[in-house]
Amino acid sequence: MSFQLSRVEVPDHTINTTKARRIGNWKGALVVLAKDLRLEWRSRVAVNALLTFVLSAVFLVVYAVGNDDLGERTVSALVWTVVVFSAAVGMSRSFVAEEEQQTSTLLRLHASPGAVYAGKLLFNFALLLVVNGLAMLVFIFMLNLQLGTPALAWAAVVLGALALAGATTLLSAIVAKTRGGAAMLPILLFPLLLPLLGAAVRAMTFAFADSGAWEQARDDLITLGAFAGVTISASVMLFDQVWND
Is residue 114 in a domain? Predict the structure, then answer.
């Protein structure tokens, strides 16, 4: 007995429609990103709040420490503690502002949930990247420290910013729908960030070493990348329900 397989033809318009939808989603994400960057450039609310918090915390720590010599792990812990608190304080604005200004309905009408999430994620990532890098540079300058492997420190900053953006973007969308949403974000965020905080502190501590730093920090960098991947993947699956609820 023989079987003959028939070839199934897929209409060209179906393929073109799928490609157009994908291109539209990416264009929508870039439009959302451009909108947030333009509004932030005009108001500078999030940037001013985050930078004020980071710089104030750094100068208070430096003033309290004085001329005492801090260990490398202590400095790394202080840097990432300041970064995590600044993210908890400032990142809720990405969706709370949409609800306060009543622009969320326009976003729902003109952009898909995936485009909205991607645009907000990119904006939060860019903002946290600036905050993380600034906090590290100010701490190192004020405490007169030397990084043995600067590339490793910047790798930890980039992966940490991506992981923080992945965790805060979805949670900020959730708390934006609640009363007093900005105050709810730290409560939800801190338990989630414990694995990230430990890995980021260890990775930056190894960056002070001159040799063998990359091998020592390999597991921590993998942890940061995996944390970012898991949080972003989960957010992509859940954001449609959260956004349209």
Answer: yes
In a domain, 125, yes or no: yes
Residue pair 116/39 in contact by the 8 Å Cβ criterion: no
Full domain range(s) for residue 207 = 12-244
Give me 222's structure tokens.
């993998």
- Provide the greatest CA pair distance for the chain: 89
Confidence of residue 86 (pLDDT cuts 50, 70, 90): confident
| CA pair distance 80, 102, nearest whole angstrom | 34
- The verdict on residue 202 lying in a domain is yes
What is the sign of the dihedral through the CA atoms of 195, 201, 232 and 132? positive
CB 121 within 8 A of CB 26: no
Asked whether residue 185 is domain-assigned, the answer is yes
The answer to whether 94 and 123 are in contact (CB under 8 A) is yes
CA distance 207 to 166: 24
Q: Has this prediction a pTM greater than 0.85?
A: no
Total number of domains in the chain: 1
- Under 8 Å between Cβ of 44 and 164: no
Q: 14: pLDDT confidence band, cut at 50, 70 and 90? A: very low
Q: Could you tell me which residues come within 8 angstroms of residue 15 by beta carbon, excluding any fewer than 6 positions away?
A: none
